[in-house]
Design brief:
Blueprint: E1 5-9, H1 16-27, E2 30-33, H2 34-44, H3 47-57, H4 64-75, E3 84-87, H5 93-106, E4 112-117, H6 120-128, E5 130-133, E6 139-141, E7 161-162, H7 169-183, H8 186-191, E8 196-200, H9 205-217
Parallel strand pairs: 1-3, 1-4, 2-3, 4-8
Antiparallel strand pairs: 5-6, 5-7
Helix pairs in contact: 1-9, 2-3, 4-5, 6-7
The structure holds adenosine-5'-diphosphate (2 copies) and zinc ion.
């Protein structure tokens, strides 16, 4: 089945990006990651990027207006017409309200909100071991997902990888605190609308994918 419109929720390091990449291919839909968009602005050295960098490096949230504006513009692009995965947005009540308004305005209806649930103590290892192909963005992990050939990206053959500036043990603590204080209150909000499905993210990647697909196909 194609044409899904969903929010992928979950803590930092919970596996949202990993699963979003698989769902893109499986359903012919696009991943909209506010974290990726912000990192692109940082790398490009735009004014927005300069502002965002300090906030992101400290593990705090960038302003609601900025991310709401980014998503609203992105949803108007042609490749979103067949469906999309919101990854890392909304993250606050104000963002959820902003999303509601823009979806109404654009005549878009959400199919599902999937929460990938992972216990906090697992997330520090997930995040400190994370690295990414610098060319194609394929995600890896020092313990849980090494490239099949050492130091060579499975997806594109590139041999350079990057680690995020905010993926360190200190920043993880403030990102987790922010998640519990500001983002997890959105879960009952979506549950009360009958949109929420909870998936066990504390199992191997393929098993998580199977659970998410079961939700989307039901
Ligand atoms: P994670 O891997 O922790 O889920 P993301 O890549 O989604 O991280 O986000 C990295 C950082 O970018 C966040 O810690 C935050 O500073 C900023 N960011 C991303 N999305 C949002 C958002 N929706 N609202 C505010 N800040 C955001
Ligand atoms: P998020 O986008 O939610 O921050 P990622 O998808 O980037 O999370 O995953 C964080 C790290 O954990 C990555 O290095 C990824 O390879 C690894 N990872 C993702 N899902 C799992 C899983 N189910 N089991 C073990 N490691 C995982
Ligand atoms: Zn690659």
């Amino acid at each position: 089945m194609t044409g899904k419109r969903l929010i992928l929720m979950g803590p930092p390091g919970g596996g949202k990006g990993t699963q979003a990449k698989v769902l893109e291919d499986a359903y012919g839909i696009v991943q909209l990651s506010t974290g990726d968009m912000l990192r692109a602005a940082v790398a490009a050295g735009t004014d927005l990027g300069k502002q965002a960098k300090t906030i992101m490096d400290a593990g705090n949230l960038v302003s609601d207006e900025i991310v709401i504006g980014m998503i609203s513009e992105r949803l108007d692009e042609a490749d979103c017409a067949n469906g999309f995965i919101l990854d890392g947005f909304p993250r606050t009540v104000a963002q959820a309200e902003g999303l509601d308004l823009m979806l109404k305005d654009k005549g878009i209806v959400l199919d599902s909100v999937v929460e990938i649930r992972v216990p906090d103590q697992k997330l520090v290892d997930r995040i400190t071991g994370r690295f990414t192909c610098s060319k194609c963005g394929e995600g890896y992990h020092d313990t849980f997902k090494l490239p099949k050939t050492a130091d060579t990206c499975d997806a594109c053959g590139n041999t350079e990888f990057t680690r995020r500036a905010d993926d360190n043990a200190e920043t993880v603590k403030s990102r987790l605190k922010t998640y519990h204080e500001q983002t997890s209150p959105l879960l009952p909000f979506y549950e009360s609308r009958g949109l929420l499905a909870v998936v066990d993210g504390d199992q191997e990647m393929g098993a998580v994918t199977i659970e998410i697909k079961r939700v989307l196909d039901s």
